Amino acid sequence: MPDAEPQLPDGAVAVGRIIRPHGSDGTLRVQPHSDNPARFRVGGNLTVAGNIRAISDFRPLPGGYALLRLDGLENLDAVRSLGGQWLVAPAEPAPDLPPGEYYHYQLVGLNVVTDEGENLGTLREVLITGGNDVYVVASDAGEEILLPAVAHVVKDVDLSLGRVLVHLIDGLR
Predict the structure, then answer these.
(1) According to DSSP H, which parts of 127-173 are helical?
(2) Collapsing DSSP states into helix, strand and coil, what is residue 39?
(3) pTM score, whole prediction
(4) Which of 22, 86, 105, 117 has the fewest CB atoms within 10 Å, measured from its CB?
């Protein structure tokens, strides 16, 4: 399982992770972790390894990956050490979503409770699987449970309470 998103200052969100260099011209193979495509628009800014860089090119690839070019990183030597680094963007602005839909960064950190009152832990990460998202929930004891983000499992999300209400169906433990 990939490492959880890093601890970020308020107002910042991890939007992707660098997998490795792609070619010798500074292009990076990345795995986007954002459900907001505007995060990768050409001319926008991302922070990588503590440096703010402008996006000069972004091309989605099959399988949930993409190719990314950042200004000032124009050869293999400039990007060789960036594998595994997180791409960070300001949390706002993000377009409003319809009621009942949430950005991943809004969900990470919420407390997850069953409809029977059991506290499962903290939503640590949202995995993008293609069919439906999967919530990685970590208990205080370090145990993990993977919950499919589907209507018969996720019953309610209340950002004001900082809570996700779930119904555990057979086989989820």
Answers:
(1) none
(2) helix
(3) 0.61
(4) 117
Compute the Cα dihedral for 147, 1, 39, 52 and give only its sign: positive
Site of tokens 């200004």: 71
- What's the full length of the chain, in residues? 173
Q: Tell me, what amino acid is at 150?
A: V
The Cβ of residue 146 has, within 10 Å, a number of other Cβ atoms equal to: 13
pLDDT tens-digit profile of 109-120? 999 999 999 999
- The Cα–Cα gap between 121 and 112 comes to 6
DSSP lists the bridge partners of residue 51 as 48
Structure tokens at 24: 């010798």
Residue 93, preceding peptide bond in cis (omega within 30° of 0): yes
**CA–CA dist 18, 127 (Å, integer):** 16
